[in-house]
Amino acid sequence: MESVSIAVRLDIGKETAQSILKMSRRLKQLEHQFQGLHTRRTLAKGDVDLRVGNGARVVALVVGTYVLSLPRKMIKAPFSGKGERASDLLGLIHSDVCGPMNTHARGGYQYFIMFTDDFSRYGYIYLMRHKSEALEKFKEFKNEVQNQHGKSIKALRSDRGGEYLSQDFDELLKERGIVSQLTPPGTPQWNGVSEKRNRTLLDMVRSMMSHTDLPTSFWGYALETAAFTLNRVPSKSVQKKPHEMWTGRRPNMSFMKIWGCKAYVKHQMSTKLEPKSEKCIFVGYPKETKEFLTNSEKGRNIELKEVQQQQDIEPEVEGISQAVEENPTDLETQPLRRSTRERYEPERYGFLVTTHGDVILVDQDEPKTYQEAVASPDSKKWLEAMRSEMDSMLENQVWTLVEPPEGIKPIGCKWVFKKKTDMDGYVQTYKG
């Protein structure tokens, strides 16, 4: 129901008193006659009616100012705001809780809480069994990041979820001097960093799960792997990769594997006849170690010290069997076959092999340095070879001669001299 509040500027005598009383009795009726009037209107003296937005005429009983409030006609204004970015690490942390999921993750997890640094957009993910664990996860996150960076969290932005409005959570923020930034009710766009990251992570999880035959309960491993990957890829919100801005080092991505791919784990202890590895499925990167986390086909988890990809292992041959007699002593031992073809030494190396089969080592007398080359009996040929090499590099513009910058030591180089021989062992070309 619309409400109408009326401020009347009185300049009347006794004869209009009855009109004022009559106006107060007719307020309920005026509520329906003021449809379409959303602003403040003032009637001039002598005006007898008022036209509203829908064309209806409202009779003016007195001259004054009418303030109308029509909540039923209110619409939500479009969101066009852009929050101020933090100027340093831990200046502002975005957080949100997502869940419950339809399927419990391995370990009984239904929820996950996310913390994202506004400056670097580096994110942390923690799986939870209940929403009430949000306070403990925030303490764990706070202790880790503050100890690693030597800085304190300045502000925490979240929605008005009950896990953030608890008395214990509020007391912790006040005790540590952390400003709590709560978004207005019904406005998730003000917590857009967390909302967008939630959507991105869940999209990645659905894509990863669709490419494997693993059960849905592995969504927890997929989520942690998605967050691990998202921190190491470029983001439109920052100039560098989030991992580089968070740690100061460029991320190494050469070790990353396809989630859900086949992997082979080398056994630490194995017998002579048993296989030395076990076939597993890659499911993530543990936070506490540089190893890989896999799930064996027998259902147990293994932390890898050595991972061999499927293409490095010879394919298994199934469906082929070979009958073996029970008594191996009855098998006839066959001699090894050897080729009866006569062997001849290559003619091009005949001059290096004596009649007794000995190999002659010939010293080509090749100079090791420039000084040895110009002092040798073949100095003219070596100088001609060096001149030919220099002319070839100048013609092909291999390098450009410039003055070295101050304080920079140029990289040294040296000449390598070789004699090219023909098939009979005679020198044909001098190369430098």
Which CATH architecture of the largest domain is right?
A: 2-Layer Sandwich
Low-confidence stretches: 1-15, 27-39, 301-331
Strand order of the largest sheet: 8-7-6-9-10
**CATH first level of the largest domain:** Alpha Beta
H/I helix tally: 9
Q: Please, how many domains?
A: 4
Mean pLDDT figure? 76
Could you spell the SSE succession in H and E letters?
EHHEEEEEEEHEHEHHHEEEEEHHEE
Question: Would you summarize the structure shown here?
Answer:
The chain is an alpha+beta fold and 432 residues long. The chain is 24% helix and 18% strand.
Question: What's the layout of helices and strands?
Answer:
Layout: E1 3-7, H1 17-25, H2 27-33, E2 41-42, E3 49-51, E4 57-59, E5 65-69, E6 93-98, E7 111-117, E8 123-128, H3 134-149, E9 155-158, H4 167-176, E10 179-182, H5 192-210, H6 219-230, H7 242-247, E11 262-266, E12 277-284, E13 292-296, E14 301-304, E15 307-309, H8 370-375, H9 379-395, E16 418-421, E17 427-431
Parallel strand pairs: 6-9, 9-10
Antiparallel strand pairs: 1-5, 2-5, 3-4, 6-7, 7-8, 11-12, 11-15, 12-13, 13-14, 16-17
